Each structure stands twice: as structure tokens, then as C-alpha cells.
Amino acid sequence: VQMEKQVVDGLREVFHTEPLHRLITERQADIEQALKQDLNRNTYNTSLFELISIENDIKLVESDMADWAAPRPVKKNLNSTLDDVYIKPKPLGVVLIIGTWNYSWAMILQPLVGAIAVGNAAVLKPSELSEHSARLMKELLPLYLDKEMYQVVTGRVLETQELLKQRFDHIFYTGSSTVGKLVMEAAARHLTPVTLELGGKSPCYISKCLYIRRITWGKFANCGQMCIAPDYILCEPSIQDRIVEEIQKTLLEFYHKDPKSSPDYCRIINTRHFDRVLALMNECTIALGGESDRSQCYIAPTVLKNVLPHFKIMQEEIFGPLLPIITVNDLSEAIHLINAREKPLARYVFSSDKTVFFSLPVSGGVTVNYVLMHYTVDTLPFGGVGNSGMGRYHGRHTFDQLSHHRACLIKSFAMESLNDARYPPLTAARLRKAKFFMQHRLCSCSGSAPLALGVLFELASPVWLSTSRYL
Ligand code: NAD
């Protein structure tokens, strides 16, 4: 165990995340500029929604990595009382990280932080849709990180498919569920494990018209292009109009009269997505917004009322600034509606009665009386379930996700007679002894106690063999 700890210290010299930290701090202005070109994102939002969490994970690695990488002793059964038994996280090898365009830096660099900390090499494939960020990432990474260990590959779908034909030791994919299935299929050819960080329709149930500005912020930040943005609202008919009024007030406060000229309001990534999002409004009644400008990929913050579950907008993840409201008679109708759909990445509840939250069906994560914020707690695992993904990351969870947890047992040479119970010629008495030692555990023994117990067993062995049938 001591030697394992020394190896960890040695690896820390080589695999450290400090160069990545320098990259995002020294080149912050370039990153902000690239995101301005990709999404019209302003500099403050880039820090708030991407750089802070990357930096946070780097700091966490620097302070806690020695603990994460250290051998993790486990409880032992009587058979292994005198042995060293522990789990040792080991590097997997080469990790392929494929990212999206909506948070093009965080979706690549956050998993990379964990990959570096474990000691993995990585190939990074940023999304081609956020082209300025992808180009800049390819240019900057070799200036800060070891080129042999970490490489950026840019390209479109064909290039990604070509990459997926190669054998990796882990694939960490962030993107849509549709492409996630293709990634998993490609990984299966080499039996490569995958982490799939996907999306879905994250519902927001409002039982009372409280803190609507929190929802307004979470829905329209990044122009709604966020995997955990509240996708739709469920509420009772009596509060629908109040909710619309509150959203209208908040939008005025956030983006003033004309969101198009607000420095805080983003754009849709390209005209293909612009057309897709706009088409989702077709059957709906617009309560707020609805304006658009294709030449700028601008869609105003839009609220749609009296939406019905069979409308097109309720059949796919919106990933844009449209917020449909569906009215339900009560919580059980809301649950029924949610249950009829795929398991989403997040669920939100606004209620003064916190027990409401317990009745909600499973999802990747939950935030009560706020939206998005469970993402920012670095000790919580972030990931989906079912159609919204598999695996988890952030902080220590990334480290664990991208390492192999090797089971280690270093047997002691002492007490060979305990092992005799398993050797032929087997008898009923030996089997009883073997069973006893395999099935019982020393709960809180430490120091010399296991040794003393072992000696006792050794001495008492003949007596024990004749009495163990009564145990
Ligand atoms: P996408 O699946 O279209 O693309 C993601 C990546 O996959 C890109 O790098 C792209 O080059 C590659 N790709 C696209 N088509 C491919 C194909 N046929 N074969 C191989 N590779 C292919 O996703 P997107 O549009 O960039 O992102 C939007 C989706 O991502 C939404 O569903 C959103 O919810 C989800 N998302 C999830 C998270 C999360 O953390 N869970 C974060 C951000 C976005």
C-alpha cells in the first residue's frame, strides 16, 4: 500500500492539470471571443456557464487527487483478515472525448481534467458546429499540453465516424440520444466502455407561482440551448396566466424591451437549428415573444400557453428559447404525463411543500425550487438515466468514471492452516470452516487485533473443527 502511494506521488509529477489551468486563464479572452462568434455569448456568461466549472474541477483535482488516487482499503472477511485488501484506481489508457457545440469548452475540458488526473491519454473531438471554438481548441491545446498524450481532432460527422472505428479504452460522449446510440454501437465492436451524457425533455412542475425569475433565467440563458434547461412547465390552469405575467416582467428586467439588442441574449447556433426550433411553434398559441430573424439566427424568448401533450413541440427536446406551458388538474396528472415519456436528464419542482419532490419519477438529477443548479455542486454526480444517458462525472466522479478500479489482494504468508480448509481432500468439516471464514467479517478490528484473532484461530483449530457445526 505504501509503494502504491509512492507511485501515486510520482504520477502526480507527470499528470497534472496546471497547464490546462494556465490555458483557460491566459487565453480566456480568445475563448470568449470564439464563443461570441459561435453563439453571440457575452464574456460574463462564458465565465459563468463554462470557465468557472472547468477551473473548479481543476482546483479540486489539485487539492484532492492524492486521496482519490490512493489505495482505498475495504472491509475484509475473516479469510483475508491478515492480508492487504484494497481498491486501486488505475488509468484506462486512451479516452476519446466527443463534445457538443452548446458548451463547447466545458463539454470537452471537464472530462479531460478527470482523464489527465487519472493518467489517461485523450483524443478530443469538439463539435464542428461551434467552429470558432473547435479551431481555437486545436490551436491552443498543443501549446499547453503534451502533444503525445492529448490531441484534438476536428471534423464533421464523417471524421467522427472514422474516429469511432478506432479502438479506444473509453469513449466519453456528450450529445443527442440519437447519436449516442450510434456511438454505443461503434463502441460495442471493440467492447469499449462508454459514458453517454445525453439530453431529453426536462419538466418543471410548478405548484405555486413562486420564484418564476429563477425559471426564466434557466430557460433563456444560452438561448435555451442547454441540456438541463427546463423544457416545459406543468401547472394548474388557475396559475398559468400569473406565470406568463411573471416571466414577462423578468424578461424585461433581464433583457430589456428588445432582447435582440441585449448583450446577454445569445443566438441559435445555425440556420438548420433555427428552422427546426421555429417549426416547433406551429400548432401553439404564443403568449409571449415569437419574433425571429433568420439572418441573425435570432429567436425571441417565447412562452407558449395551453400546449397539449400530443403537439410536435412535446415530441422532441426543444433546445431553444421556447417555453411551452401544459396545464394539469393536479400533481398526479403531472406525474402521469411525465411517466409517459423517456427519463430526462433533470426534473424541477417549485413548491413550498418539499414532499412533492419525492413523488416525482426518476431522472438524472433534481433541483427543487430552482433550476440547473445541481450541475454546479461539484460533489454531486452529473449524468443521465435511461434515454438521457449513462455514467456520471464532475469532480471526483470524473476521476472514478475514467479509471479502472482494480481489486487488489496481497496475501499474507501466515496462518496457512486457515487456507487448508479449501484444499482437497475436502470434508464436511473443512467446508464448514471455509464457509465460516468466507462469510464472516471483522467489523472494526484494527492494529494487532486481526493478528491476535488469527493466532487464536490457529491454536484453537482442532477444537474449532469439532465445534464449528454449532456456529
Ligand atoms: P450531436 O449529437 O448532434 O453532436 C455531438 C457530437 O457528435 C459532435 O461532435 C458531432 O460531430 C458528433 N456527431 C454528430 N452526428 C454524428 C454521427 N452521425 N456519427 C458520429 N458522430 C456524430 O449533439 P449536439 O447537437 O452537438 O448537442 C445537442 C444535444 O446534446 C442535446 O440533446 C443536448 O441535450 C445534449 N447535451 C447533453 C449534455 C449533457 O451533459 N448531458 C450537455 C450538452 C448537450
State the gist of this model:
By secondary structure, the protein is an alpha/beta fold.
Notes on the structure:
- Pfam families: Aldedh.
- Belongs to the aldehyde dehydrogenase family.
- This is Aldehyde dehydrogenase.
- The strands form 4 sheets. This protein has a 7-stranded mixed sheet, with helices on both faces. Strands 5-4-3-6-7-17 form a 6-stranded mixed sheet, sandwiched between helices. The chain has a 3-stranded antiparallel sheet with strand order 1-2-18.
- The longest helix has 27 residues, at 43-69.
- The protein is built from 16 helices and 18 strands.
- It is 42% helix and 17% strand.
- By secondary structure, the chain is of the alpha/beta class.
- It starts with a helix and ends with a helix.
- The chain folds into 3 domains: 2-198 and 395-405, 3-Layer(aba) Sandwich (Aldehyde Dehydrogenase, Chain A, domain 1), CATH 3.40.605; 203-381, 3-Layer(aba) Sandwich (Aldehyde Dehydrogenase, Chain A, domain 2), CATH 3.40.309.10; 416-465, no CATH class.
- β3, α5 (106-118) and β4 (121-125) form a beta-alpha-beta unit.
- α2 packs antiparallel against α4, α2 packs across α6 and α3 (28-39) packs across α4 (43-69).
